[in-house]
Amino acid sequence: MPSHTSIRLIDVADAPAIAGHLTRDAEEFARWLPARPVGFSTTPGQVARIEQLLATHGSGGGWPGVIVADDAVIGQVTVSTIVRGPIQKGFLGYWVASAFQGQGHASRAVGLTLRVMTEELGLHRVEAHTQLENLGSHAVLRNNGFSPWGIAHAHIHIDGAWRDEMFWERTLTAGAPAPR
Ligand SMILES: CC(C)(COP(=O)(O)OP(=O)(O)OC[C@H]1O[C@@H](n2cnc3c(N)ncnc32)[C@H](O)[C@@H]1OP(=O)(O)O)[C@@H](O)C(=O)NCCC(=O)NCCS
Q1: Which atom of ligand 1 is nearest to the CA of 95?
Q2: From edge to edge, which strands make up the β-sheet containing 125-131?
Q3: What pLDDT is stored for residue 177 in this prediction?
């Protein structure tokens, strides 16, 4: 039976689970996610990072979440770089541990995050970037109503090379009144 997917705000107590996934999936993720400093994938490294993410959340700059399946933390979904004023947008990133991929968790988690962005954060627009070859990530975004609107050449340094990225967008509140 397919497992249930939920999201919630990250907690410092999630550090060991996240460090475990990042360590086990280091090889798999190296092709898709930027290199991290030494110690990043350890529990103390994750405690420090989660504290930073929660501080940013506290100042209104982001919404750092974990993806949960049947009570276990299986990944992360993060709204960052929130811009207010006349723009009202956030940037979306996510990963799911390889042992849990291919079951729809990322697609459902992104859908739930769009609800948080709309209902809790009151945002108007969401953006994401993917490498051209990351077909799974393209599908996650298409499943959630995103459209690609351009390609940025040599946009991010990952796995030893500058990679092109597709830029994706989705409006959250088409027709909503302008912010006051
Ligand atoms: C990308 C990622 C988040 C997808 O997670 P997931 O939980 O497996 O995603 P889903 O189960 O929701 O699958 C989404 C779709 O991708 C498709 N897909 C997965 N891998 C694929 C691949 N290599 N090629 C083509 N399609 C693929 C699935 O078939 C599914 O398609 P469907 O909804 O049309 O049936 C996961 O692979 C991951 O964490 N990768 C490493 C980190 C990363 O790339 N993060 C995103 C950076 S932009």
Answers
A1: 39
A2: 5-9, 63-69, 72-83, 89-96, 125-131, 161-171, 147-158
A3: 60
Give 136 Cα–ligand 1 centroid separation in angstroms. Answer: 3
With a threshold of 0.70, does the pTM exceed it?
A: yes
pLDDT at 173: 84
Centroid of ligand 1 to alpha carbon of 129 (angstroms): 14
Residue ID of nearest Cα to ligand 1 atom 20: 136
The angle, 0 to 180 degrees and rounded to 10, between the axes of the packed helices 105-115 and 135-143 is: 40
The helix/strand count (H/E) of the chain reads as 5, 7
CATH topology of domain 5-171: Aminopeptidase (3.40.630)
Domain range list for the chain: 5-171
